Amino acid sequence: MRLSDSAIMIDMKLMTNYRLRLIYIFITVTAIAFSSVVASAQVTAPVKPGIANTAAAQIIPPSKVATINSDVFIDPKIGVTRLVKAFATLDAEFKPRHDEIDVLLTQLDVLNKPSILPANIADQDPKVAAAKKGQIEQLTTNIKKKQQEGQALLDKRTKDLTDPIYADLMTSLDAFAKKRGIDLVLDVSKSNGVYIFNRGVDITTAFIAEYNAKPATP
Q1: 190, 70 contact by CB (below 8 A)
Q2: How far is it, in rounded angstroms, from Cα 7 to Cα 113?
Q3: In 10 A of CB 3, how many CB atoms?
């Protein structure tokens, strides 16, 4: 059996910046995601058979609808300053762990390369082959352990840093909408079937600007 056949294939890129963004999605912006649009219209409720025609029809008042794109909140250039700083903090805090795992992955990759093995595996000392096989298995186990520990710490730290910000964002968005008479805010990043024909209804930039301008909550 070739030594490379005994190697356990594992994910070669844990805790990259892309992974951090996925973690962020785990702490999804549920506070500002809404699922339906209410049209600005007056609707007359149908009169059921047997009810007198003089019964008052139900009137639904016009509703003011706006959209927001919460994906923009983490944009390094135009996003929510507190969130951008929070994720920058996460990147800095977990970079040593990420670098350590990258080094181990490189070592594992070298061990798995067929080029380091003799052309005829049968000519290799069985003790040497067994030692390298054990080294590969031990290194693989060590990497997986560090990945799991790092991911658990990353999840907790992300929650600790961002949950208070999302709660404050929801409170601020509620106040922002009420001040402008907005009845419904639809998060277009969570609704793939929404088509916007009037970009004037998008409050993303205005809301972020107002939120960034206010003093940070302790």
Answers
A1: yes
A2: 10
A3: 21
The angle, 0 to 180 degrees and rounded to 10, between the axes of the packed helices 126-179 and 17-26 is 50
Write the CB contacts of 83 (distance below 8 Å, at least 6 apart in sequence).
73, 74, 162, 165
Backbone angles phi, psi at 40, to 5 degrees: -80, 100
**Cβ neighbours of 137 (radius 10 Å):** 13
Reading the block at residue 119, the tokens are: 């052309």
Per-residue pLDDT of the chain (218 residues; tens, 9 = 90+): 443 333 333 343 333 343 444 333 333 333 333 333 333 333 334 444 554 454 445 677 778 999 999 999 999 999 999 999 999 999 999 999 999 999 999 999 888 876 555 555 545 677 777 888 888 999 999 999 999 999 999 999 999 999 999 999 999 999 999 999 999 899 988 877 676 767 788 899 999 999 999 887 65
